[in-house]
Amino acid sequence: MPAEAALKEEDLQSTMTALGAAARAAAAALALADPEVKIRALMAAARAIRDNAEKIAAANAKDMAAARAKGLTPALLDRLELTPERIEAMAKGVEEVAGLPDPVGRVLAEWDRPNGLKIARVSVPLGVIGIIYESRPNVTADAGALCLKSGNAAILRGGSESFHSSGAILDCLQAGLKEAGLPEAAIQRIPTTDRAAVGILLTMSDSVDVIVPRGGRGLIERIQRESRIPVFSHLDGMVHTYVHTAADPEKAVKIVVNAKMRRTGICGATETLLVDAALAETLLADLLKALSEADCAIRGDEIVRRVMPQAEAATPADWDTEYLAPIIAVKVVSGLDEAIAHINRHGSHHTEAIVTEDAAAAARFMNEVDAGIVMHNASTQFADGGEFGMGAEIGISTGKMHARGPVGAEQLTSYKYKVQGQGQTRP
Amino acid sequence: MPAEAALKEEDLQSTMTALGAAARAAAAALALADPEVKIRALMAAARAIRDNAEKIAAANAKDMAAARAKGLTPALLDRLELTPERIEAMAKGVEEVAGLPDPVGRVLAEWDRPNGLKIARVSVPLGVIGIIYESRPNVTADAGALCLKSGNAAILRGGSESFHSSGAILDCLQAGLKEAGLPEAAIQRIPTTDRAAVGILLTMSDSVDVIVPRGGRGLIERIQRESRIPVFSHLDGMVHTYVHTAADPEKAVKIVVNAKMRRTGICGATETLLVDAALAETLLADLLKALSEADCAIRGDEIVRRVMPQAEAATPADWDTEYLAPIIAVKVVSGLDEAIAHINRHGSHHTEAIVTEDAAAAARFMNEVDAGIVMHNASTQFADGGEFGMGAEIGISTGKMHARGPVGAEQLTSYKYKVQGQGQTRP
Q1: What is the pLDDT of residue A173?
Q2: What is the CATH number of the domain that holds A214?
Q3: pLDDT at B325
């Protein structure tokens, strides 16, 4: 290896180590910060975002120009762009996080023991959160704010495309921290676009407690594979909506079209529609027609193609495909049992919905389907921390460890037991 | 590689795969089991343990004979031995677990959204728990019972020394499952003492959700290093008791002696005593004398050795040593700040205690010390799920992810969100 490359690698390693140590020290201070001080920092950060809207826009223009020169797709350019409205929405989002109940120091449970010991389980921050994301620069503000609110230090690593935009937003967050007298290292970012930095971050188990990746499947897979640190993530949103025999036809059509078509690129978008065989001669046609009229391509099984001959034939791969596009796979099932079995086999434990007026069928579906979110008579597009009233989310987890479903401020905490004695010794 | 070895390896792999698949299927059934049915299975298992006490004792005698022939230490032989009292205690333990509140299906939180959606966070089992332990055969009953109560399937892997004893106990647990109509595969064990089986288990992330290791540091380290599955564990119990200036002298002496000497081999035993400098001329001597009289060896800093010249000098390594023996390291600190800093640097986030009558000092200690359990005016030997009133524990975790502190039935659950709509679509 040439001497220069070795040196650079060493530099990166020491930069990362310093970043980790600073984050750990800031986390200790943040964990003990008064709730009012955290609110002050967040409100000041929101103000700084508004006051520096032009600076942020200028930084974003730089990123956009480079991205256009690199020939990024319109979809990626759209994710990257910060309009005045989006900058204002970012500031508002930070204010909303400020207004959430403080998730630290909540007494989660308390009880007394016969020997007089008083035991309380009290929430504490997790410590240091590493957030690895792609092109959306607004994740900088969302993730930074949520970590701050929950008393955690954040190490951010945005995509190289948004390097200048994210930097300008980070300046505002750090200005807020400074104004409130909190350590600026509470929200840091990796100061290089070198991909090797991510590899190092994933091994820093002494200074990082959780990794939250936000992005495409490739990114998440790499992180799940490489990380020596626990990861809150979801690989897929292989989401189903199941229309049960006892569905209200009007609700079913509205819900299915919304669940699939409102926004096709989000993880809560429905990808497969299951319809009870008893509805094959009735509601199925209306569902297919409504989807078609909404410009959704249909891939169906034999029964579906009997009802709508122009539909493409579904192949086995379709039952496992997250299209993230205006395409839906449609399967006719014999009833509740087959629907649950199909979902537990093909789903990704993200969000699953049933449409029915039969409460018992809904209860069975919601108990037996193994997913972070199960819904009855609602669009799967509601699978979102904001829609859940959690203020904001740093991501959605499909794992069962620690956080499941939308990951908000409360899910970024752990707990400790406080035991109050009066001199007790153990016999 | 000789053909025979290759075949054996293949056999082991397929045995483990089959075990995992059976556990996953049993877990799905168990997750939906009625609380009463689980209680029935546990009570039947306790009865079977009593009814088969002689069989269990005979199996244990086999293990004991083999262990003696292998020249195991008296301490290990003691851990392995099942006396009639210990068999009865095991049966009683299973009954106690049966009597715990059911941890599955609890509504952890619920709220309504402005659009009428009703959201509930409801506890669900984690799935399949792999428990890897050493010589104590009673872990078979404790761990099996806790997993069953919490709706999880268990894959047990006991030490080879306790192979026959564990097998006899497992028979009783499976008899209980059978009597209640639950799948016997809900509690299985790895049917071989081949060490390679553990290596395979740690990679079975499709069929195992959590690994809980119980045993010495070597075992835990190997598992933390190799596992591709989340681990609930603690490597050390590097536990401190801090005697603050405002300590009640009598309480302090009683607590310190109990915290160190009640049982020196458990993870909640105090290993380092910190004493405020203001007490160097007063209480320190009483503490050292009481420890000495209880046959505890003392390794002290300079001030300690001025008070008790016969004490051995502590080396820097002593501040990081978990003796698990009648030895204590004693350090004089300048006050609360130094005590907290020392503990956060040298502690293992397990259990830490302060002795003081000053409520403000206690509150600061309990907030600022980073440990799963923090105590005020109580012996650190209370760090135990049973003493916490959690019925039993499968282990103690020093990590912040998911379970922290004693891991009981409640900590073996995750949650799902149930969203109840009336036809809502997302705007």
Answers
A1: 98
A2: 3.40.605.10
A3: 95
Residue scoring higher pLDDT (A308 or A6): A308
Give the pLDDT score at B7.
52
Q: How far apart are CA B252 and CA B247, in angstroms?
A: 6
Q: What's the pLDDT at A7?
A: 52
Contact assessment for residue A155 and residue A19, using Cβ atoms and an 8 Å cutoff: yes
- Written as six digits, the tokens of B329 are 């390291």
Could you tell me the sign of the dihedral formed by the alpha carbons of A376, A381, A386, A392, in that order? positive
Min CA distance, A115 vs chain B (Å)? 10
Are residues A419 and B373, on separate chains, in Cβ contact within 8 Å? yes
pLDDT of residue B2: 39
Angle formed by the axes of helices A249-261 and A283-293, nearest 10°: 30
Q: Across-strand partners of A64?
A: none
DSSP string, A37-52: HHHHHHHHHHHHHHHT
CA separation for the pair B312, A247 (Å, rounded): 79
Measured between CB atoms, does A401 come within 8 Å of chain B? Answer: yes
- Res A133: pLDDT: 92
Asked if the C-beta of B143 comes within 8 angstroms of chain A's C-beta atoms, the answer is no
pLDDT confidence of residue A391: 78
pLDDT at site B3: 38
Mutation target to probe the B interface, by most B beta carbons within 10 A, among A380, A417, A418 is A417
Whether B303 maps to a domain, the answer reads yes
Main-chain phi, psi angles of A223, to 5 degrees: -70, -45
B101 within some domain: yes
Q: Tell me the pLDDT of chain A averaged across its residues.
A: 94
Q: Which tens digit of pLDDT belongs to each residue from A300-312?
A: 999 999 999 999 9
Contact flag A419-B375 (C-beta cutoff 8 Å): yes
Residues sharing a CB contact under 8 Å with residue A101, sequence separation 6 or more, in sequence order: none
How far apart (Å, rounded) are the C-alpha atoms in residues A273 and B405? 43
- Return the pLDDT at A33: 97
Q: Answer for the pair A157, A144: CB distance below 8 angstroms, yes or no.
A: no
Within 13 Å and on the Cβ side, how many CA atoms surround A193? 10
Question: How many structural domains compose chain B?
Answer: 2
Query: B374 at the A interface (CB within 8 A)?
Result: yes
For chain B, list residues with pLDDT below 70: 1-7
Report the gap between the CA of A357 and the closest CA in chain B (Å): 9
Domain enclosing residue A112, as ranges: 13-232+406-418
Nearest to B157 by CA among B182, B127, B192: B192
Shared domain check, B154 and B46:
yes
Instruction: Report the DSSP beta bridge partners of residue A112.
Output: A118
CA distance A373 to chain B (A): 5
State whether residue A347 sits within 8 Å of chain B by CB.
Answer: no
